[in-house]
């Protein structure tokens, strides 16, 4: 009996010690972290978590809305606060909020559109209705970024299996109810949670159209409570309501209405907090929801707010043993990239799945690298007909592969864009050009596109072209084109001082082009054309300018190179366009002569092109090699940056040359994500036109220059400048169009 009693006592003592030790390893109570939405202000969450980690406060549940879902999702996946701060600090937010890949990687036929002065806004026609994109940004790059950052969770379906159980909150915009993601595709859940209406396009998940969770539950206290948390740390980073003086337009009033409704819902949630819960409201002041460039500042503010709450937070600190257990469990999963064994394409939402799959096929047999996959997906997306191109890692029979999901634009397959040009010299002469471009895509299995351009203004008419690759993604194409247009052409005296006449040139032409684009930045092409130009004197007296009708047939050779990062205000790269056209008397043509034209622009890497300052060097040249004087041999100069000081197209001839250097500086905050870029600049120019090759001499060059201000407006680049040329020519310009002004 005595031995039995001793054994029982020993067992009770051992059990007690074990229970006490186990309790020391289990953090109690369960602390839930609630991270609210607030756009860029949400970076403050990271600062709060830095303090929580420093004070050894373990989190057992986390939920977030919008930016809070990004921070919460990364934290739940095993990132610590410092790692998240580095990720946020290294992001190129400007690039992230632009869906298009680097322009240098776009296909050449898409780059061509940049020189047609089209606005960067697209509308579609579908099922008898005009359709517009559901958001300014489709979120293409954001989703790919989330996939890369969360690649270690690629096979996690249940969010309770993350290192910290996690929930993301979105809104079903159709029924107006919150949607809480507890399982599924983690990157897509986070992307859905931050689909700010109007800015980011909504996502479609299992038939539900989802937008930003902040509309219904911006600070998801109830969600974390339902997850079983005992005590809550709540971080509210919502934007304050605008002051009366700021409510001066309908957009501001609409934003205020939405913000007021969100604030009312948030206040109701906050009133449900108990005395045991801790509310942290970082003093973010007027830091805007779109100022992602101020992320470091927001992190510091969040850290300061958490430190102000330290007296209450320290009561939640875990024992050393419990904290060590948390640290060991809170880490990213091991990820073995493995070799890519296969590519699957989900082609349920695209007409060009074969093309997308072929572009990704070179990854087969290589070790999976998300950056390489993103680069190839960027090339696919750059074709211009996709709303989204996504991917997932999948396993099949022990092999790992990539499942590609391309989705065609919901507002297609017929798209339209508008264009606008205006030139006014404030001296009684102005010209305008309105254009509309309608493109039908994926007309056949090889990716055929039919583009129609209509003009009104100084040019009136239509151009229709059919771009047909030799198979999906082929680098070889054929493009037949028909053109019918009328153009008003002013004719000045030889000095460009006095307008003598105005002609109307009527052109009717057909052309067949065969091209090869082995890389995205260069192309070689050959063409055959047949057309008729007719010139009618409308005003003034006959001059040396061609008159009457000329039937022509021609063979052409073209070479294009385009690696510019931007066709409006470029900061790096180069652009070259060379055309050699031989007019001969075949197919009914009656013109005999050769014409060569060159347009080149270059941003030299001489240390002059920096974050603010950029130097653009340009060359324009045109020559009718045998001086044949007909419509197609004419070249024009004059106007802003084309011998500034002269009127638009006031100099003409069969020979022309222009060299220029343009230095421009961007003003304002370079780091601002959403801003209207303003530039100031100056140019030095030299050139002339000649009626005969024998007249071409260096001592006959005209020297000119300008100073200007440029604005990247919703209607495209707008320039206001003053130019002066030798001989007393001075003009003030208001111009809508590209800084490059590519034509002669």
Brief descriptors of the model:
744 residues; 8-stranded mixed sheet; alpha+beta; 22% helix; single chain; disordered N terminus; 16-stranded antiparallel β-barrel
Molecular structure report:
The chain is of the alpha+beta class. 22% of the residues lie in helices and 38% in strands. The strands form 5 sheets. The protein has a 16-stranded antiparallel barrel with strand order 16-17-18-19-20-21-22-23-24-25-26-29-30-31-32-33. Strands 1, 2, 6, 7, 9, 10, 11 and 12 form an 8-stranded mixed β-sheet that branches. Strands 13-15-14 form a 3-stranded mixed β-sheet. Helix 3 (67-76) packs antiparallel against helix 8 and helix 15 (353-360) runs antiparallel to helix 16. It is elongated and about 95 Å long.
Secondary structure layout:
Elements: H1 2-25, E1 31-35, H2 44-54, E2 61-65, H3 67-76, H4 81-90, H5 93-96, H6 108-111, E3 123-126, E4 129-131, E5 135-137, H7 140-149, E6 166-172, E7 177-181, H8 186-193, E8 198-200, E9 203-205, E10 208-212, H9 214-217, H10 221-226, E11 231-235, H11 250-270, E12 278-280, H12 295-308, H13 310-313, H14 320-329, E13 343-345, H15 353-360, H16 370-381, E14 386-396, E15 399-408, E16 414-424, E17 430-440, E18 449-457, E19 459-469, E20 476-492, E21 499-519, E22 522-540, E23 548-562, E24 573-583, E25 593-603, E26 613-624, E27 635-637, E28 651-653, E29 655-666, E30 678-690, E31 702-713, E32 716-725, E33 729-736
Parallel strand pairs: 1-2, 1-11, 2-6, 5-8, 11-12, 13-15
Antiparallel strand pairs: 3-4, 3-16, 6-7, 6-10, 9-10, 14-15, 16-17, 16-33, 17-18, 18-19, 19-20, 20-21, 21-22, 22-23, 23-24, 24-25, 25-26, 26-29, 27-28, 29-30, 30-31, 31-32, 32-33
Helix pairs in contact: 2-4, 2-12, 3-8, 7-8, 15-16
């Amino acid at each position: 009996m005595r031995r039995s009693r001793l054994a029982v006592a020993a067992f009770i003592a051992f059990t007690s010690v074990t229970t006490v030790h186990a309790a020391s390893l289990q953090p109690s109570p369960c602390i839930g972290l609630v991270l609210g939405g607030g756009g860029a202000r949400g970076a403050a969450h990271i600062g709060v978590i830095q303090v929580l980690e420093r004070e050894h406060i373990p989190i057992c549940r986390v939920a977030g809305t919008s930016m809070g879902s990004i921070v919460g999702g990364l934290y739940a996946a095993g990132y610590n606060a410092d790692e998240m701060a580095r990720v946020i600090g290294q992001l190129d937010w400007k690039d992230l909020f632009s869906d298009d890949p680097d322009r240098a990687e776009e296909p050449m036929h898409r780059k061509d559109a940049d020189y047609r002065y089209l606005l960067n806004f697209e509308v579609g026609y579908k099922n008898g209705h005009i359709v517009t994109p559901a958001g300014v940004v489709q979120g293409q790059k954001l989703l790919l970024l989330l996939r890369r950052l969360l690649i270690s969770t690629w096979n996690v379906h249940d969010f309770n299996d993350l290192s910290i159980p996690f929930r993301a909150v979105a809104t079903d915009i159709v029924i107006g109810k919150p949607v809480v993601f507890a399982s599924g595709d983690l990157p897509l859940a986070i992307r859905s949670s931050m689909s700010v209406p109007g800015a980011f396009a909504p996502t479609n998940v299992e038939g539900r159209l989802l937008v930003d969770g902040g509309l219904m539950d911006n600070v998801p206290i109830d969600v974390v409570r339902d997850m079983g948390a005992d005590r809550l740390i709540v971080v509210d980073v919502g934007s304050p309501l605008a002051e009366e003086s700021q409510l001066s337009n309908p957009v501001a009033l609409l934003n205020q209405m939405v913000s007021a409704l969100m604030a009312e819902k948030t206040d109701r949630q906050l009133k449900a907090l108990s005395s045991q819960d801790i509310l942290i409201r970082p003093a973010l002041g007027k830091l805007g929801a779109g100022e992602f460039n101020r992320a470091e500042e927001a992190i510091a503010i969040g850290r300061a707010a958490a430190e102000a709450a330290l007296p209450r937070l320290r009561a939640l600190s875990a024992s050393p043993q419990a904290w060590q257990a948390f640290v060991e469990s809170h880490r990213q999963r091991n990820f073995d990239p493995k070799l890519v064994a296969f590519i699957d394409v989900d082609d349920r939402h695209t007409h060009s799945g074969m093309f997308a799959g072929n572009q990704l096929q070179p990854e087969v047999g290589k070790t999976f690298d998300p950056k390489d996959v993103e680069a190839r997906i960027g090339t696919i997306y750059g074709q211009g007909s996709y709303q989204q191109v996504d991917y997932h890692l999948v396993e099949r029979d022990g092999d790992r592969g990539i499942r590609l999901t391309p989705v065609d634009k919901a507002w297609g397959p017929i798209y339209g864009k508008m264009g606008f040009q205006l030139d006014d010299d404030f001296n009684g002469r102005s010209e305008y050009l309105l254009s509309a471009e309608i493109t039908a895509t994926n007309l056949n299995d090889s990716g055929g596109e039919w583009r129609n351009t209509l003009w009104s203004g100084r040019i009136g008419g239509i151009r229709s072209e059919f771009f047909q690759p030799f198979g999906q993604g082929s680098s070889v194409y054929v493009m037949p084109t028909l053109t019918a247009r009328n153009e008003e052409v002013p004719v000045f005296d030889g000095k460009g001082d006095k307008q003598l006449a105005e002609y109307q040139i009527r052109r009717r032409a057909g052309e067949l082009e065969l091209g090869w684009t082995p890389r995205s930045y260069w192309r070689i092409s050959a063409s055959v054309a047949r057309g008729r130009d007719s010139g009618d004197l409308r005003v003034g007296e006959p001059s040396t300018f061609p008159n009457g009708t000329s039937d022509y047939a021609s063979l052409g050779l073209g070479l294009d190179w385009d690696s510019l990062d931007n066709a409006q205000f470029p900061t790096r790269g180069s652009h070259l366009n060379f055309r050699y056209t031989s007019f001969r008397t075949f197919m009914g043509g009656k013109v005999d002569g050769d014409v060569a034209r060159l347009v080149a622009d270059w941003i030299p890497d001489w240390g002059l092109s920096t974050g603010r300052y950029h130097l653009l060097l340009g060359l324009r040249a045109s020559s009718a090699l045998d001086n044949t004087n007909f419509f197609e041999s004419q070249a024009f100069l004059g106007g802003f940056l084309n011998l500034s000081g002269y009127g638009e197209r006031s100099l003409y001839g069969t020979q022309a040359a222009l060299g220029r250097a343009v230095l421009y500086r961007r003003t304002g905050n370079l780091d601002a994500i959403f801003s209207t870029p303003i530039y100031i600049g100056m140019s030095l120019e030299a050139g002339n036109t000649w009626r005969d090759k024998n007249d071409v001499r260096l001592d006959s060059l005209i020297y000119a220059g300008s100073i200007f201000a440029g604005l990247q407006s919703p209607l495209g680049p707008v320039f206001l400048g003053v130019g002066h040329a030798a001989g007393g020519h001075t003009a003030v310009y208001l111009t809508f169009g590209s800084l490059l002004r590519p034509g002669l």
